[in-house]
Inverse folding.
């Protein structure tokens, strides 16, 4: 049984250089890294020191405020460096791959496994990090179960990986993950798929299927939650990325923490943009051949999609949650009279003040801001790319003021920064909506919890 | 392009950090960004950005204003030559108009931008593009024979009091161009009403009677113009607001590009029509029995609703709010015209009034969303207890 949901408003950015459905096993990285910044709201406390030998699945650090929130090593090896920044903030924990040590768990028969045991195994294996809790998008807390769990196969962001392709050969593990999680909440998992998805998700057990029709950001879980089972004050829901659920399933099948990642590497300058089979924390150099790019410094590497990903360097590593790696050109060039309407139509624009919207086909993008930041003047444009019963501009202004009561009443619990990706993109005044909302959520997390 | 860029880089040096003219950087930046979209790249948030920016948006409005402005030049000459019975060609009329109007535009931009630049330098923020539109709107809605010093003072008042006092572009409550118009109207009533100011040189040449249609109606006179000339705009009035036809061309551009809110324009026309029809049915005096569709053609209604009421900063900001706001602008415009013939500038006062009420309208629209969410929360709490 499936329910059809149509999400109006939003727009797709059709970018040139989308990864083709072609999977290559990436060469093994020499070093791997974990970046605590990948986990929103987590303050790391190290469990290992430089020089320590670690096994695959061994906890490397945990959250200062909650020891059950642990992050595991994606590989067997040796901690060669803990890179610190200003105020000794941990930036990267670098692990050199060596040996073949693995942390093994004994998994009882899945047919009679209890909720407490499932939670205990999730915590001990560090697989809990694969699950994120709304509000705030922090790692799920094991002390409180959610009212429902959401998984979205429907991905709409530019360059976003196709989860149906990623899960093609992992449906068995995915089903195990679904079974375990639905056992935990005594009800089916909410699974969103594209309305034209042809894969065999409909034959899955223990899921309620929602067929989503709509442009970006309808693939973001927030908008689906809002339509399927809205999040109210005091409630929590869990969100799991499809491949992460398969990794959880894999753990419950084998007893071994699974850090597998299939990554769509996209970019219009890449010769063969395609999917790579690799592991969390792998070096980006194992995914992008520098020979393909004239000069790596002219490009921006993004862990995630170009709308909401994190900027990294070529020498950095794949993020914990990312199924997408984007490579786009830096746009540090001047454009003469570039503000004139209808002149530079190759620069992608949703605004009808250029003919960009008329010209079909795939667009090339760069990182130019295309203007300067200004006071908010134009109204009504944010709503076009925010398909939810929330006033985005008013919420952003409440976040700017740090007004907790207003943020709460305008719906901060239901959103995460990445939902504002298109708002960022399309804003005439170049407002940093995602940053502002992130700071608002940080205040809420600190003051309200 | 590279050559120009290099020259700009040389000129830029004294304005950059540590340079002699560092403090004047915002002023230099305004000129530089006019010539080149900067090489700034995204540092946080989305890595890619839309090609649109505030400059492009504002320039689009200016392009939309050009047809009305051009017709205004022609009409200025046309009214003058018709009234003085001098033979003229199309070119004569346009040249006469240009001769009268360009100094007004120059004064408006010079005075307004000087204040904008001064504030930008003082507050150390970039010069906002809002005044590019305001500076053109102000001369377009003034009487043609207005002395330039009077125009300058109105601009100073509008920019200082209506805009900068509230924090500059994006923060103002009232539409700055209309504030300039209202200031002139109340500060210099003798220049801004009567039958001697609407036609070029009327005060200097005997025998010119350039009374506006609304002025005639208020005095219970007969209107000598057909609906067609009201639509085309060959009637006395402010500089460039008379031609509904050319305003509609601008409106079309604003609606197609999405820069102006079609909701406000449409609901404004609906509001004015509804009230106009009601008054037609009542028909107690010549203003009331003035056909409702003619009400839409005169008194700068079209210009006001297309270019002033849609100012996104001073209008309502929510979608529902825009419908209510536009409708009430239309309603109040006709109400003021009919019930207070001393103020035939109904559209100006109606928009300013609704500017003040726009935040209130938005407040209630947003509150209804908030209470909807609260109700959902309470429903859940009741279910679980």
């Amino acid at each position: 049984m499936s329910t059809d949901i149509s999400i109006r408003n939003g727009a797709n950015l059709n970018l040139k250089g989308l990864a083709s459905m072609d999977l290559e096993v990436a060469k093994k990285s020499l070093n791997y890294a974990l970046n605590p910044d990948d986990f929103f709201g987590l303050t790391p406390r190290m469990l290992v020191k430089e020089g320590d030998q670690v096994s695959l699945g061994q906890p490397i650090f945990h959250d200062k405020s909650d020891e059950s929130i642990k992050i595991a090593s994606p590989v067997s090896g040796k901690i060669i460096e803990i890179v610190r920044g200003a105020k000794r903030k941990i930036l990267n924990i670098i692990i050199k791959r060596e040996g073949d040590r693995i942390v093994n768990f004994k998994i009882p028969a899945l047919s009679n496994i209890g909720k407490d045991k499932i939670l205990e195994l999730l915590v001990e294996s560090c697989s809990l990090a694969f699950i994120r809790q709304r509000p705030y998008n922090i790692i799920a807390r094991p002390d409180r179960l959610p009212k429902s769990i959401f998984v979205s196969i429907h991905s709409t962001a530019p360059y976003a990986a196709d989860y149906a392709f990623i899960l093609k050969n992992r449906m068995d593990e995915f089903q195990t993950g679904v079974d375990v999680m639905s056992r935990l909440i005594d009800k089916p998992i909410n699974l969103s798929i594209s309305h034209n998805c042809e894969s065999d998700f409909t034959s899955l057990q223990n899921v309620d299927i929602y067929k989503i029709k709509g442009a970006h950001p309808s693939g973001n879980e927030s908008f689906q939650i809002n339509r399927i089972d809205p999040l109210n004050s005091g409630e929590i829901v869990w969100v799991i990325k499809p491949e992460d659920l398969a990794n959880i399933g894999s753990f419950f099948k084998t007893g071994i923490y699974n850090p597998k990642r299939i990554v769509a590497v996209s970019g219009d300058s890449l010769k063969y943009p395609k999917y790579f089979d690799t592991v969390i924390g792998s070096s980006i150099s194992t995914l992008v051949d520098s020979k393909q790019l004239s000069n790596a410094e002219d490009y921006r590497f993004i862990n995630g999609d170009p709308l909401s990903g994190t900027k990294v360097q070529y020498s950095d590593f794949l993020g914990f949650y990312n199924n997408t790696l984007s490579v786009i050109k830096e746009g540090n060039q001047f454009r003469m009279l570039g503000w004139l309407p209808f002149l530079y139509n190759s620069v992608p624009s949703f605004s009808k003040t250029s003919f960009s919207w008329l010209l079909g086909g795939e667009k090339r993008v760069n990182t130019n801001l295309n203007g300067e930041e200004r006071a908010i003047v134009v109204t009504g444009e944010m709503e076009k790319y925010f398909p939810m019963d929330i006033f985005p501009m008013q919420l952003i202004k409440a976040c700017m003021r740090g007004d907790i009561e207003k943020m709460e009443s305008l719906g901060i619990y239901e959103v995460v920064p990445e939902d504002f990706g298109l708002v960022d993109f399309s804003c005439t005044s170049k407002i940093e909506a995602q940053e502002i909302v992130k700071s608002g959520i940080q205040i809420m997390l600190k003051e309200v919890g | 392009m590279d050559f120009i860029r290099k020259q700009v880089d040389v000129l830029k040096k004294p304005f950059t950090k540590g340079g002699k003219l560092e403090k004047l950087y915002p002023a230099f930046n305004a000129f530089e960004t006019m010539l080149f979209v900067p090489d700034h790249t995204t540092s946080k948030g989305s890595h890619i950005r839309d090609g649109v920016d505030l400059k492009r948006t504002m320039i689009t409005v200016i392009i939309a204003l050009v047809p009305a402005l051009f017709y205004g030049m022609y009409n200025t000459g046309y009214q003058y030559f018709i009234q003085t019975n001098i033979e003229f060609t199309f070119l004569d009329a346009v040249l006469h108009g240009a001769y009268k109007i360009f100094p007004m535009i120059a004064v408006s931009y010079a005075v307004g931008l000087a204040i904008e630049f001064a504030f930008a330098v003082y507050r150390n923020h970039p010069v906002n593009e809002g005044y590019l539109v305001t500076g053109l709107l102000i001369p377009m809605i003034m009487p043609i024979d207005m002395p330039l010093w009077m125009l300058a003072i109105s601009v100073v008042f509008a920019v200082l009091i209506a805009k900068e006092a509230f924090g500059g572009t994006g923060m103002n409550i009232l539409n700055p161009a209309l504030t300039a118009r209202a200031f002139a109207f109340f500060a210099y009533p003798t220049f801004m009403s009567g039958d001697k100011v609407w036609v070029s040189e009327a005060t200097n040449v005997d025998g010119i009677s350039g009374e506006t249609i609304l002025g005639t109606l208020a005095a219970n006179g007969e209107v000598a113009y057909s609906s067609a000339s009201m639509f085309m705009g060959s009637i006395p009035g402010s500089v460039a607001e008379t031609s509904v036809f050319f305003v509609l061309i601008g409106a079309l551009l604003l609606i197609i590009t999405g820069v102006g809110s079609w909701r406000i324009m449409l609901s404004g026309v609906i509001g004015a029509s509804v009230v106009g029809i009601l008054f037609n049915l009542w028909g107690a005096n010549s203003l009331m029995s003035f056909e409702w569709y003619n009400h839409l053609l005169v008194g700068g209604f079209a210009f006001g609703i297309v270019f002033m009421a849609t100012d996104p900063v001073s209008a309502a900001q929510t979608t529902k709010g825009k419908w209510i706001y536009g409708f009430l602008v239309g309603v109040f415009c006709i109400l003021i015209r009919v019930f207070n013939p001393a103020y035939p500038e109904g559209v100006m006062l109606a928009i300013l009034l609704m500017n003040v009420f726009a935040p209130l309208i938005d407040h209630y629209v947003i509150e209804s969303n908030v209470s909807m969410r609260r109700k959902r929360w309470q429903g859940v709490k009741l279910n679980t207890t």
